[in-house]
Design a protein that fits this description.
The protein is an all-alpha fold. It has one domain (3-113): Orthogonal Bundle (DNA polymerase, domain 1), CATH 1.10.150. 54% of the residues lie in helices and 0% in strands. The chain is built from five helices and no strands.
């Protein structure tokens, strides 16, 4: 294993989660924890049954490994496309950071950033009738206020 690659991965992950996301991007704690969990799952997957996460280097986080990880989320963990895309978003964000802070890994980052999101079905519900009897332009949005046309005593 390349010790420099292991060191770079560890340093990049620490800086990404500990400095970049909370201070430079001002992401919420929940978003940072979600990104951390996504990257943790990726690292565990990349290490596999025979390896240890502590022995991984950036070279282990290549496109074939990442696409296999994303496929396993759906096939083995039962995650839907939306969850898969959330995980990929965290991975993309990390590799975008990596490309800026560690330009020697720019080529690898560009390849990973080209891994596409999976299309998801979006359901949009448009109600044809308002839920109350008054037209929407006459109905009051505040239940404490009378509707137009109602007299107050």
């Amino acid at each position: 294993m390349n010790n420099g690659g292991i060191f770079t991965l560890a340093m990049a992950l620490r800086a990404f989660l500990g400095d970049y996301l909370p201070h430079q991007k001002a992401y919420s704690v929940n978003t940072i924890l979600s990104y951390r969990d996504s990257l943790k799952l990726l690292l565990q997957f990349a290490a596999g049954k025979r390896g240890r996460v502590s022995e991984l280097s950036l070279a282990n986080l290549n496109v074939p490994t990442i696409t296999a990880f994303l496929d396993s989320l759906e096939a083995e963990r039962g995650n839907g496309a939306t969850t898969r895309n959330v995980r990929l978003s965290a991975i993309h964000s990390f590799f975008e950071y990596l490309s800026r802070e560690y330009p020697e890994h720019l080529e690898q980052a560009q390849r990973v950033l080209n891994v596409p999101f999976k299309r998801t079905a979006t359901a949009v519900s448009i109600t044809s009738k308002p839920t109350n009897s008054a037209p929407f332009w006459k109905a009051s949005t505040d239940p404490a206020l009378p509707d137009e046309g109602t007299t107050c005593s």
